[in-house]
Each structure stands twice: as structure tokens, then as C-alpha cells.
Amino acid sequence: MVSIRSGSVVILVLLAVSCLASVANGEEKTIKKKKVRGQTVCTQGWECVWWSVYCCNQTISDYFQVYQFEQLFAKRNTPIAHAVGFWDYQSFITAAALYEPLGFGTTGGKLMGQKEMAAFLGHVASKTSCGYGVATGGPLAWGLCYNREMSPSQSYCDESWKYKYPCSPGAEYYGRGALPIYWNFNYGAAGEALKADLLNHPEYIEQNATLAFQAAIWRWMTPIKKNQPSAHDIFVGNWKPTKNDTLSKRGPTFGSTMNVLYGELTCGQGDIDPMNNIVSHYLYFLDLLGIGREDAGPNEELSCAEQKAFNPSTAPTASSS
């Protein structure tokens, strides 16, 4: 599991918010370096506040800026969208600062960082889109249209978790956020990581865009189970597949990020629309960021159509969405 130092979340968020004005004015960040046990570690002001090897690399605001966020989510504030005025670049970059010292957007060089932004935000756009085939601007321009499930079919309370993450009276654990979180146990786990009482107040996710993005990045960065990779580790190549993974057609590919996040809902079902929609957003975002979809790899690396699920669905799991 990705761990966050106790008490650091509030401090980091305050630092990030206070320094965003400097970012907007184009002021340069100061990179500080030191050696720890023979290894160079760095900080970069508000955006990479903990000493980390990842903070010696370019940070997200170096290569992903406001105008690019606006291009990727061009239709999110149109009158027919369902979360007008909620999502913005400031909320995203403030949330991202919490995880940049852990490698989010800071693993490898600029190209890998850009590709991870396209991948992560491609997932986000697909899961929050209200686009359709003939929508103005095209179906891929409507990400971040929602910040919550509009017509929940249930309260998503799993009583089998009543001792660790008991459902709070009156609370509804339907999908909320940029990578929607469902079920009491997922709200409980996210709340522990982010030092927010999401188990008793799941509504916080739909009231605070920074927290909503933090929860999404937490989900991207955090393994669902022990001895499994996170979507981040899969994408940046930190994960080494086992023989069983290879036999299950899982590898360090974009396709496997869908597998670990959504399981059988998206993967192992052949060439289905939910999978293709996520892939289409990723490729579209690569184009918009000026990378080109040829850097995404061959189709078999983009797809999870024939992969066996990391977590087969026998009961609600953290991949349920």
C-alpha cells in the first residue's frame, strides 16, 4: 500500500495552495539536493516537498500546464455538464503534489511523465464523461462532466466490512470523484490514506475537487491487494510480471492498468465498448499533448480483451466501479 506520512497531507495542501500564485506567474522553483546513503534526493518547493529521488526529475507543472488541462477537458463547464465549475487545473495540480514525491508524474523523464498524465487522465475522462457520438467537440472532449453517480441503484454498503469499515448511518457510498470510488471499504481506505473522514462523510468527495483528485490519484498509486501492482507501477514499468501473469496475458502495459483498476468489468471480455472507450481517451490525450499515439505501443499492449482479471469478481472489490 502507498503510505502517506501522518499529518503531512494538510501541511502539503496548504503549501501547494499558497504557492500556486507563484506558479501562475511563471516563477521558477528551487531544486534542493542532498545525499542520503549515497543516493541523491531532492525537493522542489511546494510541488515536491518531501526529500525524494523522484523530486530530482521534472515535476508535473513543468510539462503539463493550465492550457493543456483546458484542452483535455474542453467541455466540462458547458451548461449541460453536471459538475459545472467544480473541476479545475489548480485542484488537480494541488492534489498531484501529494503524490509527486512518490513518483506520480515524476518517474523517468519528461516523456514518461506526459504519457502517465495521458494515461491517468484518460481513465479519468472515460469514467466521468457525458460525451456521445455526435456531441459537440466529439465524444472524447467531455471528461469531468460528472463528479458523482447521478442515479445510484444502491447505497453500496457491504456489511462484511462492518468491523473495519462500518457503514455510517445515512451515508451513501455510491460513485464519486475523478476515478469514482464505490463501497464503504473503499471510502474507508481512501479516507485513512488522505486523513479525511470519508467513511462517515463520503460526500466530501463531491464537495472538494482537490480531495476528489487526491482520491483518484490514491487509487492509481495504490495496489488493491498485497503482492499486486498499482496502476502506476504497471504503467511506468516498476512492476515485473510473474510467470502466472504472463500466462494470464498481463504485462507492464496500459491494458493491464485497466485490469487492475476494473477487473472483469472491463477486461477479459473481448473487444467491448467500456475497454475501447478508455483506450480511445488515452490515445486522444496523447495526441493533444503532442506526443503521438505511436508512442502508446501496439494494440495488444493497449488492450486487455484477453487478459485474465487480477481479482476475479466473486464479491465486491476495490476494482468495482
From TrEMBL:
<dbReference type="GO" id="GO:0006032">
    <property type="term" value="P:chitin catabolic process"/>
</dbReference>
<dbReference type="InterPro" id="IPR000726">
    <property type="entry name" value="Glyco_hydro_19_cat"/>
</dbReference>
<feature type="compositionally biased region" description="Polar residues">
    <location>
        <begin position="310"/>
        <end position="321"/>
    </location>
</feature>
<dbReference type="InterPro" id="IPR016283">
    <property type="entry name" value="Glyco_hydro_19"/>
</dbReference>
<feature type="disulfide bond">
    <location>
        <begin position="267"/>
        <end position="304"/>
    </location>
</feature>
<dbReference type="Pfam" id="PF00182">
    <property type="entry name" value="Glyco_hydro_19"/>
</dbReference>
<feature type="disulfide bond">
    <location>
        <begin position="157"/>
        <end position="167"/>
    </location>
</feature>
<dbReference type="GO" id="GO:0004568">
    <property type="term" value="F:chitinase activity"/>
</dbReference>
<protein>
    <submittedName>
        <fullName>Chitinase-like protein 1</fullName>
    </submittedName>
</protein>
<dbReference type="GO" id="GO:0016998">
    <property type="term" value="P:cell wall macromolecule catabolic process"/>
</dbReference>
<keyword id="KW-1015">Disulfide bond</keyword>
<feature type="domain" description="Glycoside hydrolase family 19 catalytic">
    <location>
        <begin position="68"/>
        <end position="295"/>
    </location>
</feature>
<dbReference type="GO" id="GO:0005975">
    <property type="term" value="P:carbohydrate metabolic process"/>
</dbReference>
<feature type="signal peptide">
    <location>
        <begin position="1"/>
        <end position="26"/>
    </location>
</feature>
<keyword id="KW-0732">Signal</keyword>
<dbReference type="InterPro" id="IPR023346">
    <property type="entry name" value="Lysozyme-like_dom_sf"/>
</dbReference>
<feature type="region of interest" description="Disordered">
    <location>
        <begin position="300"/>
        <end position="321"/>
    </location>
</feature>
